[in-house]
Design a protein that fits this description.
The complex is a heterodimer. By secondary structure, chain A is mostly beta strands. Chain A is built from no helices and 9 strands. By secondary structure, chain B is mainly β. Helix content of chain B is 0%, strand content 49%. Chain B has no helices and 11 strands. Classes of the chains: A mainly beta, B mainly beta. At the A-B interface, strand 3, strand 7 and strand 8 of A face strand 5 and strand 10 of B.
């Protein structure tokens, strides 16, 4: 199972909005609404941000939103804040009782 | 609150074995599937394995099939990862994570929450 494709890095200024893409195939992202996103700070465990493409766990800011079109899922962070600087990973159910992650995107807040 | 606590990591020589444990608290462990996810130093996340809530089904990433075995003991609120024939490329932080069900489906194939991780270093 090949990893989902994410940009290695994205950047934005405080207050701006950024979008991180996550491209898979018709066998994973395109077939299931089981795309999730995780935020990870250096040396820390990943934190759930989005599940089932666009749902937010309790306690996650509404500045984070998710969507999907075809084989590509997206995470949008609006009103960028310094504390958003972290690594972001997408993940999808890939059928056949397997899962696949994206390679991760490093977000820099300028 | 919901917590997952991994243990059992350490330094091990190639070809040797190691067993990781993950103790859960704050929820009814026997109602949830559990996953292991790993992260090599400086690399991304890799899904490793999942075990159904009752242990009836287990699935693995191709990269670990035949060498890593997931199991659970619901009486101890613990999920395990038995690793044999370890390779240098198995060096990683290993996280356990609870499966988040989707709607009425017992399996959601998404993770919430995660443990803090335990580091396994395979080196001679």
């Amino acid at each position: 199972q090949s990893a989902l494709t994410q940009p290695a890095s994205v950047s934005g200024s405080p207050g701006q909005s950024i979008t991180i893409s996550c491209t898979g195939t018709s066998s994973d992202v395109g077939s299931f609404n089981l795309v999730s996103w995780y935020q990870q700070y250096p040396g820390k465990a990943p934190k759930p941000l989005i599940y089932e493409v666009s749902k937010r766990p309790s306690g996650v800011s509404n500045r984070f939103s998710g969507s999907k079109s075809g084989n590509t899922a997206s995470l949008t962070i609006s009103g960028l804040q310094a504390e958003d600087e972290a690594d972001y990973y997408c993940c999808s159910y890939a059928g056949g009782s397997s899962m696949v992650f994206g390679g991760g995107t490093k977000l820099t807040v300028l | 609150q919901v917590q997952l606590m991994e243990s059992g990591g350490g330094v091990v020589q190639p070809g040797r074995s190691l067993r990781l444990s993950c103790v859960a608290s704050g929820f009814t462990f026997s109602n949830y599937a559990m996953h292991w996810v790993r992260q090599a130093p400086g690399k991304g996340l890799e899904w490793v394995a999942v075990i159904w809530f009752d242990g009836s089904n287990k699935y693995y990433a191709d990269s670990v099939k035949g060498r890593l075995t997931i199991s659970r003991d619901n009486s101890k609120n613990t999920v395990y990862l038995q690793m044999i024939s370890l390779r240098v490329e198995d060096t990683a932080v290993y996280y356990c994570a609870r499966d988040l069900p989707s709607g009425t489906n017992l399996m959601g194939w998404q993770f919430d929450p995660w443990g803090q991780g335990t580091l396994v270093t395979v080196s001679s």
